[in-house]
Each structure stands twice: as structure tokens, then as C-alpha cells.
Amino acid sequence: MKKIFYSLCICCCVISATAQSSRYIAAMEENVAPLDSVSSMDSLQILSNNFQRIAEAEKSAWLPYYYAGYCQALIAYMEMDMNKVDGYADQAAIFAAKADSLSPNNSEVLCLKSMVASARIKVDPMTRGMQYGMQSGQDLQKAETLDPANPRVYLLEGEGKFYTPAAYGGGKAAAKPLLQEAVDKYGSFKPKSDIDPRWGEAQATQLLAQCSQ
Fold first, then answer.
1. Among residues 140, 135, 92, which one has the least CA distance to residue 117?
2. What is the C-alpha separation between 52 and 56, in angstroms, rounded?
3. Alpha-carbon span 211 to 202, nearest angstrom
């Protein structure tokens, strides 16, 4: 009788875990899908809030924190009021740190950290450029070491060069080989799952085209 009872308990636990996993995947897919098409800060904030709620329900999953941080980083890039940029970057950094704690030495999380550092530069490029530029570069260097096939590494490197004046080592000529590498990597890149990061291909293609203009 005890064996039957224990078997039933195990079966119930498996069913519960499967149902929970299915809900998690469904919720993530619903919120990951719009990421490539959202164009407003308000929409990104809604998605970030959604990912945060998923993260609070799935405390051991790094991806919800990653995407919540990614949305905040994009908002920081879009924000034109320099007094507000650090607030969004701070939120992105908190989510990135949480994702990092759940999935250490993760190339995608390091790309997010690099984005956060780059967002801080725009507040005052002259005084912040060296500190946060170095931090962003170090994060990308480690991300590349961990996963040389990750196209977002080369996209972010190329994007950084693209928007840096040629006098400081940037410009279209410096960005072009990195963006070409990114486009090539996207051609063979396969996400681990439907909810793993896949963003950036269109952006890499557009920037590469601008390098030839």
C-alpha cells in the first residue's frame, strides 16, 4: 500500500512540474514574440513587467530576468532625457545580475551587461566613455570567449564602432568587418529553444548596409 502511495505522489509531482513548465514556456513565447517588432518605450516597459512577473513565478529560470533586463536596456537607449537613462540602466543591471547568478558564464547575459554599460555612456560621452566603454568591451570579450558563435557579440561590437567617431577608433570602416561577421554568424545561428535569444539579425543587416553608403 505504501509503495502505491509513494508512486502516486511521484506521479502527481511529475504532472505538476510538467504543467508548470508548459505554462512557463507558453508565457515566455507570448512575450518573446513581440520583441522584434516593438518600437515604443511604453510597449517595452509592459514586456519588461511581464517578464519580471514570469521570473518571480519561475525563480530558477534565467531567461525571464534576461529579457526583463534587455527591455530596460532598450528603453535606456531610446530615452532622450539624460536624467532618466541611468534609472533604466540600473534596472537593467539588476535583472542582468540576477540572470548571471542563475546562469554564470553565459555569453548572452554578458552581452546584456555590455549593453547596459554602453547605455550609460550616452549620458555624458566625454566623461563616461573610457570607464563604461572599457567595461562594455570587457564583457563582450568574455562573451566571445565563452561562445564564439554568438552573433550578438559581433553585432554589439560593430554597433559600438559604428556610432563611435572615426577619430576615436570608430566609424563605418571599423564597424563593417564586425557587422559582416555578425551577419555571417546569424546565417548559421540556431537558438537552443524557441525562447532563447535570437534578436539582432535585422539590425546587423541594416547597419552593414549603411557601412557601404
1. 135
2. 6
3. 14
Nearest to 65 by CA among 82, 86, 81, 48: 48
Query: Residue 97, exposed/middle/buried by CB under 10 A (0-12, 13-18, 19+)?
Result: middle
How many angstroms separate the CA atoms of 159 and 169, rounded? 13
Dist. CA 173–CA 176, nearest whole Å: 5
With b for 16 or more beta-carbon neighbours within 10 A and e for fewer, the 188-211 pattern comes to ebeeeeebebbebbebbeebbeeb
Average pLDDT, the chain: 91
3-state secondary structure of 95: helix
The DSSP code for 40 is S
Tens of pLDDT, residue by residue over 17-54, are 444 589 999 999 999 999 989 999 999 999 999 999 99
**Cell 506521479, residue located:** 11
pTM of the model: 0.89
The cell 561562445 sits on which residue?
A: 147
Give 128-161 pLDDT, tens digit per residue: 999 999 999 999 999 999 999 999 999 999 999 9
Please state the rounded mean pLDDT for residues 154-174. 95
Helices (H), the chain: 2-32, 41-57, 62-78, 82-102, 107-121, 125-146, 151-162, 172-188, 201-211
